[in-house]
Every structure is written in C-alpha cells, then in structure tokens.
C-alpha cells in the first residue's frame, strides 16, 4: 500500500482545502508534484525519505483531492505564488517554519517561487526537470511549439481547452501525451490520476495553472530576473537525460543565473524522474537534504 505509515488529512488554509499526507520523523521535507498528477507520484520516494525526515506531501490547489478558489481575471488564484502560500500554510499547520523542499514539474515551479517569496522558510531546494517559467517562454521556438504544445493549448481562454479535453480526458492527459503511462506509473497512482482528470473541476484547475504560467507567473519571473533577485538557499537540480531539458537547454547554466549555490545532474530516464528512477531519486535527495 502506498504511503504506508503516513497520515492522510485535509488542511484548510482559508483559501483552499488541501489533501495532505505526513509521515516519518526528523527534519521536515516538503514534496510537491507536477502535471497532470497528484502527490501519489512521490510514494516510492517519500517512504524512503521518511526513515530520516518528516515528509509532507500535498495535492496542489485544484489537483487531485485539493480544492481551488474561483478563477481570477489575472489568474493569480492559480499562480505559483498562490500555491507557495498553500505550501507555507501546510508546513505551518504542522509547526514547521523552516524546511527543505523538492518539487517536480509544476511542483518545481511552486518550489522555486516559494524560495523566492519566502526565503526565510526554505533551507534547501531540489528542483526536478524544469527551468524557470520565464526562461521557458523566453526561449520558445519550433521545438517548444511541438514538444511543449500543451503549454499554449492549456493557456487558451476558457472554455476552449476544457471543452475539447472533456471529450476524453484520460487520452488527452495520459494515453496521448504519455503513451508509456500505464507501465511507467505504479498501478495505484495511475488509477488515481485517471480518476482525478475525469472531474471537470480538475481539468479547469490545470488549465488555470497554465494560464497563470503564461502570464502572471512569467511576469513575476521576469521582474525578479530584471531586479537581480536570486534564490538564497542551496539548490539541487535534477533532470531526465532522455527528456527535453537535456536536448534543449544548458540546465545548470540557466539555474546558475537564479542562485549562487547550484549543483545537479541528469538521470538516465525521461521526465517523470521520481517514478522512473525512485531509488536514484531517493539517494540524491537524502544526500542533499542530509547536509547540515
């Protein structure tokens, strides 16, 4: 059974209700998931980390078992800044003011925004398989248009993408985009992902997430870069050696423009690092977060 020994609860933040799991003991670590998944993506890593750390995972607002507030015109309510507020609320709920963070994909975008907006809270930051949102849009080209086509598609005005996706959400989010999903993901996790994306509220929340990314989130990134703001804590960057980051970007070079202490490496896998290479991910996170 996934997350054996973890407690499942709902945490009310005043803005949203978040589905949260907590387990283990020791220094606190927050794990955040990506699109189009839930916190279940961390199951095989979280159980190992819980031997040495107190591990907290939650579904991002609007994803899985977490609620989302009404959409705002500027999409701030789906922004990574808003999700970073959720992260702070969850960790304070458990009594943690300072903690380590790892985020994959969209969760990685929340993670670095959390480190920028709340530098006093994040001790160490691990970012999995992304470069900053503003950097992605600034480098958008033919490869981006074909490989990351879902970025501009999901960002289209409501209800265009929601309407088209609703015809077959399982195909759109998984079987079409990720044909290896049924064998790549643990059966329990994959079943949950498929159940979640069938709900119109989740489809809408994911579209809002990408609408925020195309506007509100990118604007914050551009403003921070122009002002010379940097992530203050040590940063670990991991990326899939068979994925887009390895093919398109100087991943470490880009992140070294955003933080002074950056280290990292590629793994022999695609985009879904914690699920494709759980043992290796666990080893790298445990070593990084174990530095005191």
Number of helices: 15
* Helical fraction: 40-55%
Q: Order of strands across the widest beta sheet?
A: 1-2-4-3-5-6-7-8
Main beta sheet, described? Answer: 8 strands, mixed
pLDDT under 50 segments (min length 5)?
A: none
Structural class: alpha/beta
Portion in strands: 15-25%
Average residue-wise pLDDT: 97
Query: What is the β-strand count?
Result: 8
* First-last Cα distance: 32 Å
Taken from the alpha-carbon principal axes, the silhouette is globular
Element-level helix/strand string: EEEHEHEHEHHHHHHHHEHHEHH
The radius of gyration is: 17 Å
Describe this structure in words.
It is a single chain. The chain is an alpha/beta fold. It is built from 15 helices and eight strands. The radius of gyration is 17 Å and the shape is globular. The two termini are 32 Å apart.
Give the tags.
8-stranded mixed sheet, alpha/beta, 292 residues, single chain, 15 helices
Give a short summary of the structure.
With 292 residues, this protein is α/β, with parallel strands linked by helices. It has 15 helices and eight strands.
Write the layout of secondary structure elements.
Layout lengths: L6 E6 L4 E8 L3 E5 L10 H7 L4 E5 L21 H14 L5 E6 L1 H12 L4 E7 L4 H6 L3 H6 L2 H5 L5 H6 L3 H8 L4 H4 L2 H11 L2 H28 L7 E6 L3 H5 L2 H5 L6 E6 L5 H4 L1 H12 L3
Parallel strand pairs: 3-4, 3-5, 5-6, 6-7, 7-8
Antiparallel strand pairs: 1-2, 2-4
Helix pairs in contact: 1-15, 2-3
